Amino acid sequence: MRGALHAEWTKFRTVPSTWWLLFAVSALMWALGAAATGTVSTDQCPSPDECHEDTVKLSLTGIWLGQAAVAAFGVLAMSSEYGTGTIHATLTAVPGRGRVLAAKATVVTGAALIAGTVAVLGSLLAGRLILPGNGFSSAPLSLSEGPALRAAVGTVLYLGLIALLSLGVAAAVRDTAGAITTVLGLLYTLPALVELVGDEEWQERIREWAPASAGLAVQATKNLDSLPIGPWSGLAVLGAWAGAGLLAGAMVFKLRDA
Predict the structure, then answer these.
(1) How far is CA 177 from CA 45, 93, 158, in A?
(2) Rounded to two decimals, what is the model's pTM?
């Protein structure tokens, strides 16, 4: 396993595209978060203290773009080897396919968590700098606040789970375009279906079980009673999606010829 991890780490650090994608995670989250916090103000509220804007969640709005970069990163970690044919060399050097996938999962998840931490801290810092100028004199963006800390940690874990889900889908599909389309469809299309479904019960079910809408419940710090699913429960739903995707990928990877 140590050799497999070393091999995957070598591939990771020597491929320029991985660094660009991880940089994109932070850049996209910072940019969209700053844009979102810059558009709100307390002008329409009776007073700044009576504004009930969830400033923590608002600062982390960039997750909707950042997750796409993480998905691409997770997919390419697996599918690029099929595209270049280097998967044959990988499996010759490490015949145990379970070890190969476990090593990839470890490296990909670790990188996604580190990039996610940088992205989340930068997003919260941007919100802390921008929001006071818009009238939010006491924006609760300190990580000493329980809900804010949960939102920050949960967002980092969310990105790690997206990376795992993407890796699993890529192992099953093998094709880069097909795997990215599948993952992005799960993340963006399922939440959009809510607007097309007329039945309120089914709308609620989609929000509870779609990986993105359920997982991102962890970002909420206000009005938790109005959420379709609890913060940690929602993240657990995403964890189930990631586990299922990785299990499916592992089964196909073991049973199918390279």
Answers:
(1) 46, 27, 23
(2) 0.90
